[in-house]
Design brief:
This protein is mainly β. The protein is built from no helices and eleven strands. The radius of gyration is 13 Å and the shape is globular.
């Protein structure tokens, strides 16, 4: 069982940057693929970025390519999402996820087993 807690969200103006963090407890994360998802009001939760257990590769949804960077520090049991050039459409609750069950559909909520409670990102124009 992995417990995930996100932090780092908040209000930011368009064009600004934020760094989200996720700390894991209950188990080490070095064997888990992990990801960041987001969910805006009235929309489905969607994958933003995914990272392999050893950071060997990363994958991004089109919405974040070139602006977001996912990284991890397994020694600290931490996952990060660096977001730059933020846009109002990036406004959402951002969630950390661990333990990928379905790699082919990593961008769907059902693909991951463990979830954090989320951190709100609000981008104003």
């Amino acid at each position: 069982q992995v417990h995930l807690v996100e932090s780092g969200g908040g209000p930011v103006q368009a064009g600004g940057s934020l760094r989200l963090s996720c700390v894991a407890s209950g188990d080490t994360i070095d064997t888990y693929s992990m990801a960041w998802f987001r969910q805006a009001p009235g929309k489905e939760r969607e994958g933003v970025a995914r990272i392999a257990p050893t950071s060997a590769y990363t994958m991004y949804a089109d919405s974040g390519k070139g602006r977001f960077a996912i990284s991890r520090d397994n020694a600290k049991n931490m996952l990060y999402l660096q977001m730059t050039n933020l846009k109002p459409e990036d406004t959402a609750m951002y969630y950390c996820a661990a333990d990928l069950l379905d790699p082919a559909k990593w961008y769907q909520q059902s693909a991951f087993q463990y979830w954090g409670q989320g951190t709100q990102v609000t981008v104003s124009s």
